Amino acid sequence: MNTSSRERLGWDIASGALFIVITIIAFVDTPRFVGSPWMLVAVAAGILAVYAFGARRYVCISEAPMPSPATSATLQVSLVALLAVGVLLDPNMLLLQTIVLPLIWMTARSVPQAVIVTLTNAVVLGLAYSVWGGFQQETVIAGFITSFLSAAFSLALGLWITRIADWGAERQRLLSDLTEAQKSLKAASHEAGATAERSRLAREVHDTIAQSLTSIVMLAERARHDGSADTIAMIEETARDALRETRALVVVESPASTPSGSLAHALHRLGERFQHETGVDVRVEASECDVPRDIQVVLLRCAQEGLANVRKHAAASAASVVLKISEDATLTVRDDGRGLREATIDSGRGFGLSGMRDRVALVRGALGVTDMAPNGTALTVRIPLTAESSLTAERVSE
């Protein structure tokens, strides 16, 4: 049972109980004239009928519809008139105010209307009581005091309940606005997460699979010219590496998984492979070190990208990869090629440097590129070795 059903059921029970009480009083008291008890019961039944067939649908404060002007006026006039007739017959009928006064508020279209009708009802009942008492001074005073005290209580209670209802409506509006804002925030967060994931995948594809495919293309060109078995073997090995990277992406494992063996071993292997594929003399200086896994991955990927840039752009004859560990992890990739030629990190030429900068930023590191033309280029990655740096990377990867 919802709230409106429970409220209406409560009103149904109260109205029925009040009708029974009025009926008992009508037949227990000495009748004023023949048939007056039945007239009192008829008045009570009339008010009950106005409630049941008209005002009942408006008793739910939170969900009740707004009555039309004609409906509101008809219901309120009927209630006041029936109550006045009842008081003319017997002052005990003032008990019916317990249901009439609240219904006046619930069937009103506005607070001013409810106040005016409540005060009008007090005057009408005071006059009816006075008529019943023959306009004697005592009955006039008693009638108006009783009716206006009831009106004052009704006004105080009605204004208080109205204020609570307005507060509830405002609260509901704010809750609705908050819900919409949360939905918008959730959608924006989802879109931001999707964008970040697309960027991450783009970096991973560029740093791994794309580099392997580039190596395959260059080795295939060499094989076309010399047709050596070593070159063909390198093509096969590089293709297998690309396949492993692709599978890692497909199964949603971290593409930047921990390098097999130590970081120093991975860098030496990278240098040897690069030299074998390109013929560029590569010197690697990297001692064994204890570096957090996420930082190892970033350093290895930066070394791969640095050498990939040497392969694609530098036209170098020699390169070096140097890793130094102290309070920071510092990786330097240097070549003796032709320099940057006005290219910068922000020039937007592919994912290379900008993607590397984003990757380094995830572990609170910094990327620097120095153009030493005509004596080459130096790429430097510096990452602080703090717990905070590793935790930042882990949060982003999650």
Q: Would you write up a description of this structure?
A:
The chain has 398 residues and is α+β, with helices and mostly antiparallel strands. The chain has eleven helices and five strands; from the N terminus they run ααααααααβαββαββα. The protein has a five-stranded mixed beta sheet. Helix 3 (69-89) packs antiparallel against helix 4 (97-106) and helix 8 packs parallel to helix 9. The radius of gyration is 44 Å and the shape is rod-shaped. Residues 251-259 and 390-398 have low confidence and may be disordered.
Helix-strand sequence:
HHHHHHHHEHEEHEEH
Number of strands: 5
Helix content: 55-70%
Give the overall form.
Answer: rod-shaped
Strands in their spatial order, largest beta sheet: 1-2-3-5-4
Compute the CA-based radius of gyration: 44 Å
User: Beta-strand level of the residues, as a percent range?
Assistant: 5-15%
Poorly predicted runs of 5 or more residues: 251-259, 390-398
Distance from N terminus to C terminus (CA atoms, Å) equals 45 Å
Number of helices: 11
SSE-based structural type: alpha+beta
Main pleated sheet: 5 strands, mixed
Instruction: Estimate the mean pLDDT confidence.
Output: 80
